[in-house]
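for the record, two folds in this file. i put them one after another cuz i was lazy. first one right below, seq on top, structure tokens after. the second one comes after a little note so u can tell where it starts
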Amino acid sequence: MNVIFEFILVLLNIGFSCLENFISLFIPPKRKDITNEIALVTGGGHGIGREMALELATNGAKVILWDINTEGVKETAAEINQNGGFARAYKCDVSNVDEVNQTAAKVKQEVGDVTMLLNNAGILYGLNLMRLTDEQIKRIWNVNCLAHFWTVRAFLPKMIENNHGHILTLASASAISGTAFLVDYSATKWAVDGFTDALDEEIDKLGCDGVHTTTVYPLFVNTGMTWYPRDRFGRVFEPREVAEAAIDGMLRNRHYVHVPRINSFTRAMGGFLPKKAYRALKKYCDLGIDLQVKNKDD
């Protein structure tokens, strides 16, 4: 094919995609039906994971809950089942590849093939880099990043085989702009952002147009992980708000979900503004966290 003609087609594709995205701001895509889909939520025993599980069940999905917090996942599963939904709880440390594979095999045998994987489990220390221990650094990478490799490798093959599925990644606003006292956390969230972006392209290269990805970028959320958030003009969001936005975005096959939505401009500004200008804007908004301590009363 003529190079110039190919280039014209690319420009038309870019223009159509931009127009489609602009229109979607005012006329959102239709939500897909997930009745009887099997959705697995890691870190489903509390916080955003718990709220996403409840939202999935409300929309008719069969929900699988993984967490190291046994009581938490049992309580979430019990609430879903009592309300007429379907939920099963499993204790699983997603940072342990053997445990992930063993629990995945149990899920497939007892419930069926997972069609929606929501990688939500995460930890946060909120310390400056030099105060972090070697074990803390290893642990946050194992939980926040490497776990995504283990869970996706456990369930993606069947999604590709059936050309049907969805992978949701809970990243963070820190995946767009690195934050002081979150050097380790920001690094892991940048990593999973890149992981999902590359994975989405890889799935596309394999010709699987029925397997989708969604990455969620919440700002500060009241989960107990961050005690001292700072935001001059914004507020701390509740887990329920983030969960509703995340599931809504997934059901509309959106690639990116920002909470709040205005943060979608942060990514664009970060790409255009000089570093000093962007940091000055961030300082003006007083956006970040204070150094975390062992106890809230310290």
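(here's the note) second protein begins now
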Amino acid sequence: MVATVTLEPAGRCRWDEPVRIAVRGLAPGQPVTLRASLRDDKGALFRAHAGRVRATLFLPPGPGPFPGIVDISGAGGGLLEYRASLLAGKGFAVMALAYYNYEDLPKGMETLHLEYFEEAVNYLLSHPQVKGPGVGLLGISKGGDLCLSMASFLKGITATVIINGSVANVGGALHYKGETLPPVGFNPNRVKVTRDGFADVLDVLNSPLEGPDQKSFIPMERAESAFLFLVGQDDHTCKSEFYANEASKRLQAHGKEKPQIICYPGAGHYIEPPYFPMCPASLFTLVGRPVIWGGEPRAHAMAQVDAWKQLQTFFHKHLGGEKETIPGKL
């Protein structure tokens, strides 16, 4: 008996689209191991074995306008487009926004001006392919606290998704029209070192609830946005569950709607789109050395699948739009 392997879809597909692998012609109870490998554009090799995924994909093309989203990445800087391009295939008009260490932007983030981010929001709001009256924000890590600040100070923000972000301004001072949010303080002596020699920086930042660091707490009570906090409970970089709960307390204390908080046990810091490999450790720009991000591979992978669905549902609910996929284009 000859075993056969079929792959669906047979051609190319997007990163966030599940692939169905079926093996036929095996004897009952026969042990088998499936192995897959992929070499990306930079030559890095990724391998996987076993696994089983299923999904249904709909690709009805349709005319705009579409719900608009500004997508902001973490403290690594540069312009990351993969998440924005994937969301564009889900019926959203998405702007991937760099804010430092890219072309003529500042090389560091010691000082940031919210007017720059305001310009991006206004451009999206005025674009003919973007439906109003407001837009959404999506940020991870440092991008999360930037999105929280944008929702707090800027107009036209309807829905904000924070992935493992802080409720305090992190890294550098943030200025907007005469107001300044200082960065939350930190103590490098609180860095722990793992057996593998990586830094664990979970306890480095000061609490924004005490002393002068309270001035770094983002005034989210000013926001008119709905909020969704996606939390990895094994995040070793950011006390994201604590921050999400503090955000909920502050919003409700000021008569605002309770934010939606979804916690993922075993998930680390970098909750990416589905099927992206988990990043357990890498260089962290803010501390200048490799750090651990946390996460247990299986739990983290499952969190990425669910979080991707949850943020799309949230944006569709608060921004409008059809819950179906549309081929994206630049």
